[in-house]
Amino acid sequence: MRRILNPLVGRSFKSSGFRRLVQSAFTRLQSLKNYRHGRYSEDRNDVVRLLQDGLPKLALSRCEQMIKHQNLLDAYGMIEGYLNLLVERINLLARGRECPNELKEAVSSVVFAASRWKDFPELEDIKSILTSQFGKEFAGRAVELRNNNSVNDSIMQKLSTRKPNMESKMNLLRVIASENSITLQFDEQGELSGSIQSRKRNRQQNRSVDLTTNSYQTRSSSRKHRR
User: Comparing C-alpha atoms, which of 145, 152, 71 is closest to residue 106?
Assistant: First the structure.
């Protein structure tokens, strides 16, 4: 990848090299999306299983991970759209040292996302090219979210390090429960009922029943043999 990047940084903007780099970024994006989709599906299956096992509070905590996965998937989609726009308007991109107004949001959002994704080297290379083209001051406003940074608000929210709030987690839990015909139970304070302890007690009761049944079957079999 650096063989693409090095001839571009510090020199005049090379449209053909930038296009190749964006294509490499698309390949990486697809890989990242596939991975994140897999993680999302695994966590969703875990939520269903936890609900079926009578552990709604653990299921709720797993919803937090699902929301984080979905936020990343949404952000990947937005960055893919911005990169497509930059390639479509590449003549504007290469025209001068000042970022065109119609591309400021796309450029700023890509630069911002690159600074948050350490597992996306191709986007980091694109960020370096855009920084070289439009200056460190322009890129710094996007990375540090200074005034007039032009970064898309949704991208900021999707890549925020803040934990999802309770309302969003509960909404997701209700949707999953409804789709699987599971009724959520709430206590008098309006909180989810069900706990690990109650589940353990149920397992212990079931184990006791199994032991009693096996003991009875063994005694019955012994009596038959004596006859």
Answer: 152
